[in-house]
Write a structure and sequence with these properties.
Shape of chain A: globular
Oligomer: heterodimer
Distance between the termini of chain A: 41 Å
Distance between the termini of chain B: 32 Å
Shape of chain B: globular
Order of helices and strands of chain B: EEEEEEEEEEE
Number of helices of chain A: 0
Structural class of chain B: mainly beta
Radius of gyration of chain A: 14 Å
Number of strands of chain B: 11
Largest interface: A-B, 26 and 31 residues
Largest sheet of chain B: 7 strands, mixed
Number of helices of chain B: 0
Strand content of chain B: over 45%
Largest sheet of chain A: 6 strands, mixed
Helix content of chain B: under 10%
Strand content of chain A: over 45%
Chain lengths: 113, 113
């Protein structure tokens, strides 16, 4: 069964700290992996998309890495701010699941001023 | 105008009611999706439409009936729902069903009473 797991489920850090969110998946045959942000009661905002052939993607203070062979991705947030507080979701598009993103449970991040 | 727009944002309905959720995308994409997000569960795919044709039904009960009249519009018709169907329903679109980035709407918060 294809699954996506995110740890930790929740994280609280002081403002300014660098942090890493983890995502693991059970099958290395993927098209891509996408990181999303979700604010309470809202929809999903796409943060970064990493294609199967890529190792990392960067956008501002965010950096996502992909290691297909070990089935892992990390989202690195530099110099965290209170406005980064949200739930971060990892989603994988597996090769034999065309169009069907498989989501992790998410990591809820709180950045304290 | 945001890329993917969902209406209504909130809906309260009785178990005997019939209602519809609407999704519209302004991104020129060919694939559209319905996802369900229940409390404390990962996002779960319901339906996939590619070029207006349904390509995936993830074992969704028949009380949920999707409709895709064109590549820009997607509806979810609801009838005789149960309280456990209360959830956030999210619409998404992508250029294709493989290898492309998915964009989500803000969701409809549905409460069945």
């Amino acid at each position: 069964k294809q699954e996506v797991t995110q740890i930790p489920a929740a994280l609280s850090v002081p403002e300014g700290e660098n942090l890493v969110l983890n995502c693991s998946f059970t099958d290395s045959a993927i098209y891509n992996l996408q990181w999303f942000r979700q604010d309470p009661g809202k929809g999903l905002t796409s943060l970064l998309l990493i294609q199967s052939s890529q190792r990392e993607q960067t956008s501002g203070r965010l950096n996502a890495s992909l290691d297909k062979s070990s089935g892992r991705s990390t989202l690195y947030i530099a110099a965290s701010q209170p406005g980064d507080s949200a739930t971060y979701l990892c989603a994988v598009l597996f090769v034999n699941n065309t169009g069907k993103l498989i989501f992790g449970q998410g990591t809820t991040l709180q950045v304290k001023p | 105008e945001t890329g993917v727009t969902q209406t209504p944002r909130h809906l309260v309905m009785g178990m005997t009611n019939k209602k519809s959720l609407k999704c519209e995308q302004h991104l020129g994409h060919n694939a559209m999706y319905w996802y369900k997000q229940s409390a404390k569960k990962p996002l779960e795919l319901m339906f996939v439409y590619n070029f207006k044709e349904q390509t995936e039904n993830n074992s969704v009960p028949s009380r949920f009936s999707p409709e895709c009249p064109n590549s820009s519009h997607l509806f979810l018709h609801l009838h005789t729902l149960q309280p456990e169907d209360s959830a956030l329903y999210l619409c998404a679109s992508s250029q294709a069903t493989r290898n492309t980035e998915a964009f989500f709407g803000q969701g409809t918060r549905l409460t069945v009473v």
